[in-house]
Specification:
alpha/beta, three-stranded parallel beta sheet
Length: about 90
């Protein structure tokens, strides 16, 4: 799986978990069999092998409860990875 320099997930621009999964899968070049759920996201993020930063831009006015799951998975994997970084804004 090829990484990239930076992926931005802006909570206010995402309408659904599916849209967030699609964006991450495209930008991080996840395999075609990517399951588009949080467990599959964790597995694919653990496989990132190039320096990659994910920027999570939280919405203060219209937070989406489902976005917390993405934030938690991404931040948890980033804490254990030498290739993946996470910035929460």
């Amino acid at each position: 799986m090829a990484g990239c320099c930076k992926v931005v997930l802006k909570e206010s621009d995402l309408e659904s978990p599916r849209e967030a999964h699609e964006l991450l899968a495209k930008e991080l070049k996840f395999p075609k069999h990517y399951g588009a759920n949080l467990d599959a996201l964790e597995d694919c993020l653990e496989d990132v092998s190039e320096p990659t930063r994910i920027v999570l831009k939280l919405s203060k006015q219209h937070p989406k409860p489902w976005f917390d799951g993405f934030k938690n998975v991404i931040c948890d994997v980033a804490l254990q990875s030498c290739f993946l970084g996470c910035v929460v804004q």
